[in-house]
Amino acid sequence: MNKKARIIKKTAVILSVFVLFLSIFSCAQKERDSYAESPKYVFLFIGDGMGLSQIHAAEIMQGALSGKEVKIHKLSFTQFPGTGLMTTFSSSSYITDSAASGTAMASGHKTVNGRINRDETNRVEFKTIAEMAKEKGMKVGIISNVPLNHATPACFYARVPHRQNYYKIAQQMIESGFDFFGGGGLYYPTGRKGLQTDILEIAREKGYTVIQSEQEFLSLGKKNKEDRVIALNEKLTSDDAMPYQIDADGRGLSLVDYVDKSIELLDNDKGFFMMVEGGEIDWAAHDHDAATVIGEVIGFDRAVLRAVRFYNERPDETLIIVTADHETGGMSLGSEFSGYSQSLEVLRGQTMSLEKFNDIYVKPYKSGTDKEEWKLDDLMPLIQENFGLKGLTGKDIEELNRSFREPKNGIFIQKIVEILDRKAGISWGTEAHTAAPVPVFSIGKGYEQFIGYYDNTDLFDKMAGAMGIYQLEISGDM
């Protein structure tokens, strides 16, 4: 190689190094700029099972209660400037479960139904947006009105082969080091056989402040801002969930209280990421309990409104996203019996959830009475009182009588709400989930990114982009 060629080669190498340096500097500058421009406070609200029908049913109900005119009363989040639509399929089915859909939203990766933040082979683990926010220096809060180691909340901190690995999930909840967990209780806190160390005892040993009474919860304040807190609701159902809105009757703590307290404790100079799940929308939809579904959506909206109040105080620093993991029940606002009529005000006569009515009236009656002596007339006054089912037709009575004689638990109470929903003009397509896309509503800094039609894995990408988080870390073989 002659001298001229050597000079050319050397110059090319120097230019390549210079270009590489400029590229690295540009990327670093871009990341710093994005961090500076990203929202300081991020709220992700997930209405489990909340499709458009569940949302609109709540709007129709509130409109119907305000007078005889046909109108709707919009929820807070349906008035957000950003509206999108999101597909929910998993890698194993067009109809997802909460584990796979939660994984997609939290990590940006598809997986099979039932699995949390692990791939289809169960060999690759995914990091979540909440963990990345924590690494960025933000505080993190996880709130749900169902058990905190249930699928959706677990998808933001855990990695397990199956969503029913409840004890392992609870262990990982503590290991996450997140700053606030609140709402429902814990499934199997001492393991399925009750032989393992109580998770709450482990949490205390790891430095968490554990709250289990309403009085202790309300006393949390500035003195606890540096604490890591697990706040379980004092009143829990047999399923370790907070009582349904329709059953709480305005008493005790609700989802909005946990959002309010979480804001108080998490607010700091580096901001926070908060995931809030309205998990009982899904539970009531599985039961086809329309009145309870509507109550849960309205309660969920109140929690969103608390975040909106925070946003109004800091509009340039806050991002709020409201969506669902999937639709449950195939809820339809219309039926073959109602034609063009819709009468959701009929549901006003229901005073308690289907589940509560079954637990306090139907089960005790059937277990305490010989089957030969079961009489629908014995329970009919209670049905009329708690579901407003008056003026029943002969067909209605015949259907109730037939289902009442069934020994299998649940058939009778399902018939009660079936008749009620029929009168209200509501029908259901399934007792499971559906493949229907779900809406995404957004407001605040970067909300424009969430407009459009996209996949649930893209929700992660959009959140990561808005928050200035660029790299998803994936571990290899275990």
Short description, anyone?
It is built from 17 helices and 14 strands. It is α/β, with parallel strands linked by helices.
Give an overview of the whole structure.
By secondary structure, this protein is α/β, with parallel strands linked by helices. The chain has 2 domains: 36-331 and 430-475, Alkaline Phosphatase, subunit A (3-Layer(aba) Sandwich); 344-424. The chain contains 17 helices and 14 strands. It has a 10-stranded mixed beta sheet, with helices on both faces. The protein has a two-stranded antiparallel ribbon with strand order 3-14. Helix 3 (98-107) packs parallel to helix 17 (456-466).
Distance between the termini: 50 Å
Specify the overall morphology: globular
How is the CATH topology of the largest domain named? Alkaline Phosphatase, subunit A
- Percent strand equals 5-15%
Described by strand count, sense and barrel closure, the largest sheet is: 10 strands, mixed
Ranges where pLDDT stays below 50 over 5 or more residues in a row are 19-35, 471-478
Average pLDDT metric:
91
CATH class of the largest domain: Alpha Beta
Q: Architecture of the largest domain, according to CATH? A: 3-Layer(aba) Sandwich
- What is the total tally of β strands? 14
- Overall radius of gyration: 25 Å
Our count of domains comes out at 2
Helical segment tally?
Answer: 17
Spatial order of strands in the largest sheet: 6-7-5-4-8-1-9-12-2-13
Portion in helices: 40-55%
Please state the structural category. alpha/beta
Supply the CATH superfamily name of the largest domain. Alkaline Phosphatase, subunit A
